[in-house]
Amino acid sequence: MDQNVERLQVRVWRGNANGGGYRSYEVPAQQSQTVLDVVTWIQQNAEPTLTYRFACRVGMCGSCAMMVNGEPRWTCRTHVKKVLDGRQLEIAPLRNLPVIKDLATDMAAFFDKWTRAEGVFHPTATRADAIAPIVPDDPMRVLANEAIECINCAVCYAACDTVAANPEYLGPAALNRAWTLQNDERDSAYAGRLSAVSSGDGCFNCHSHQSCMTYCPNELNPTASIAGLKRLSAASFFKGGRGR
Amino acid sequence: MIGLRLYLAQRISAMILAPLVLGHIATMIYAVQNGLSAAEILGRTQGSFWWGAFYGLFVAAVSVHAAIGLRAIAYETFGLPSRWLDVLTWVVGISLFLLGSRAVAAVVL
Amino acid sequence: MDIRHRRDTLRIASLIHRFSGLALALFLPLHFYVLGLALNDAARLDAFLNWTDYPLVKFVEAILVLLLALHLFGGLRLLALEFLPWSPRQKAYAASAAALSFFVSVGFFLSAV
Predict the structure, then answer these.
(1) Which of A72, B2, C40, C42 has a Cα at 20 to 30 A from B71?
(2) What domains lie within chain B, and their CATH numbers?
(3) Could you tell me the pTM of the whole model?
(4) pLDDT (tens digit, 9 = 90+) per residue, B22-66?
(5) Number of domains comprising chain A
(6) What is the value of ipTM here, to two decimals?
């Protein structure tokens, strides 16, 4: 390693479901270096058995999120300069999810909750029908628009202290997705989804900490979506369970 | 842990409490000026229907609100199982309501 | 305990809401008990209220008023967040709630001493 190059002091969590701990690595600093670049450098030059997950490297696939200096980040779009603590970088698997190995978590529970929240589109038309025209400034479309760019990266889920304290809570991503579908006029599962999101593990557990909004890499606001679901559920209760 | 009914009870009690707490704070700032005495408090409240209604409603709403708040804390901090959560919610709510009603009766009747 | 993800203003506001609520819930039984003393004998209430002449007790009372105000104004922000159209100015509202609460509790303290 060139002695003149500035080095980052990087601590990486290594282990599996049975436990583990941090190991330190020295990584050469570079211009325009992302956290994912650092992890990749370690795997290719220092620790070939290091396990982590990534795919697109451009912030679209949502597979590379990790805890960086204690905060959840999409590592492929997070510049080292932005998160460096002196010369220290601490990289760990996403919070609130079980570890498989090293930096790779088991995201099954996260995606199961999308299904439990009815975060699934139920079409009203068949492929034989004409495409439903949705006007861009339709009020429901405007609401859905604000919440629709989710890449399923689980950064919000890892940031959420309500999930940490209440493992059954459906969490910000699944509820945000349910909110976009409640505002999709082509969808047929409004009533069923409303009862799914207002169950004992659903939207009413949210304390509006707004950590999801603080950390969402796409600057979405799941807290606002969940507040919308709370209003829809409350309104439906007072209207005697009638639909939208 | 918190479903629709508990949520609505928590938020409706909060909406009832908000103006009552404002009134309570204003009363405290007014009443504390010359020191607190039983004669002064009772002179204001005893035999008054409106103070009785004000604090009676206050006690009812705060019993609901505190019971559900403590339920969330008990679950999220100690992971209390759901049957015990229900017991805790009811015991806290009823105890606060009884103690509070006794206090209102003491200063109004 | 790792708190590095809890340094945001709004996360701190939610911790204040929780701890103020917990403290108020624990204080309520004592508050009710003391007022209940007047049920049989106003003199017993008076005997207790004499404590409130001590400056330290007045300070503790002002702290209780601060907690009540923080829970009230912070709670109003949360009710608005949930029941009104979304506002992006949540940090400003949280800071205003805290400022208003200090104003009220200092007002109480000055009125008490």
Answers:
(1) A72
(2) 4-108 (1.20.1300.10)
(3) 0.94
(4) 999 999 999 888 777 888 888 888 888 999 999 999 999 999 999
(5) 2
(6) 0.94
User: Of A43, A77, A105, which closes a domain?
Assistant: A105
Residue A29 belongs to domain with CATH number: 3.10.20.30
Query: Among residues 46-105 of chain B, which lie with CB inside 8 Å of chain A?
Result: 72, 75-77
At which of A82, A105, A128 does a domain end? Answer: A105
Q: Do A208 and C82 touch (CB under 8 A)?
A: yes
Name which of B17, B24, B38 is nearest C46 (Cβ-Cβ): B38
Contacts of B10 in chain C (CB under 8 A): none
Report the chain A residue with the minimal C-alpha distance to residue C2: A70
Neighbours of chain B (3+ CB pairs under 8 A): A, C
Query: Are A101 and A112 in a shared domain?
Result: no
Q: Is A227 on the interface with B (CB under 8 A)?
A: no
Architecture of domain C4-112: Up-down Bundle (1.20)
